[in-house]
Amino acid sequence: MFVLGFESSCDETSAAVLEINRDGREQIIRSNVIASQIDIHSLYGGVVPEIASRAHVEAISSVTRRALEEAGVKPSDIGLVAVTAYPGLIGALLVGVNFAKSLAFANRIPLVGVDHLKAHIAAAYIGAPEIQPPFLGLIVSGGHTVLFRAEDYYSFEQIGSTRDDAIGESFDKVARVMGMPYPGGAKLDLLATKGDPHAFAFPSPALAGDTLDFSFSGIKTAALNALHHARQTGQAVRYEDLAASYVHTAVEAIRSKAEKALKQTGAGQLVVAGGVAANSHLRASLSGMCKKLGVELFMPALSLCGDNAAMVASAGYYAFRAGESAGTELNASASDGDW
User: Fold this and answer.
1) What are φ and ψ of residue 85, in 5° steps?
2) Could you give the CA distance from residue 315 to residue 176 in angstroms, rounded to a whole number?
């Protein structure tokens, strides 16, 4: 079965063809074309929604054509169209949703709307048939930090999340104030490898008590205050040390809550996805923790951690298999789905 996926929730326009065989156990990426808008938004230090929407309109036709050509298939070969419908920037989502609806309707192909968060987790399914629900899932990205229990490949129960900022947003904001261009999370990760992780004492984003929730606003404010105070008083700040301390504290918070969740749920597998899943410090920390607990750890390939349509196609397959479908009434929503 060939699934054509579309992703346009933020600043990447992507179309992909995923070949799925053996009841979903074998997933082969035939194409995964991504048109990034980073160069555009870096001028403004972050994503400008209206500009993002217009860029999606300009790119989606050519991206789709390339995805079909690279996969060596025609629309008549496609068995399912899957598109990110929520959450995300509403204008950006509408571009992908309306294009996917039109293509599916014109070619009489079944259509399904996909939850962007569940799509991130589905990125780990590609190339990892060993993943078997129930498992513990962790999404770490620019907009979300969520712990959940997966009852099936597309049926999740949230058990913990951030109450304010997401880990990825906090990384990007601190990196920006340190003078790094957007998006700064990857650059902060690299800089952190050169510093002392104990040079600065930052508050932990892991909330105390019997909860699996996080709060990243405090650590972000503490880091920004440290930078502003140093500049106002003429003190020198070794950015490598601040980056290392910030990343270490944030990663340790994620590790501690993930470990607590694993022990509470008794899960034998941890699936981690989202843009921040590419962070080298987080990957190393979670790998060590899972090895200690005897838990299997699954993460997408680095190329699949960011937004892409292959993950949408994978999630769409499982949503469709679970009985979900959509027609021309499908609409986009900026809000998270109801798990």
Assistant:
1) -110, -20
2) 33
Task: Evaluate whether 301 touches 127 at the Cβ level (below 8 Å).
Answer: yes
pLDDT at 155: 94
**Domains in the chain, start-ordered, CATH in brackets?**
2-124+304-321 (3.30.420.40), 132-299 (3.30.420.40)
Residue 146: predicted pLDDT? 97
CA 140/CA 138 separation, integer angstroms: 6
Residue 43 confidence (pLDDT): 77
Question: In sequence order, what are the beta bridge partners of 16?
Answer: 5, 32
Residues of the chain with pLDDT under 70: 337-339
- Please provide the size of the chain in residues: 339
Dihedral angle of Cα 79, 85, 86, 89, to the nearest 10 degrees: 130
Alpha carbon separation from 266 to 115, 130, 263, 293 (Å, rounded): 26, 18, 5, 11
Region for 322 from its dihedrals, namely left if φ exceeds 0, alpha if ψ lies in -120 to 50, beta otherwise: alpha
Provide the residue type at 78 as one letter: I
Cα(89)–Cα(35) distance, rounded to whole angstroms?
17
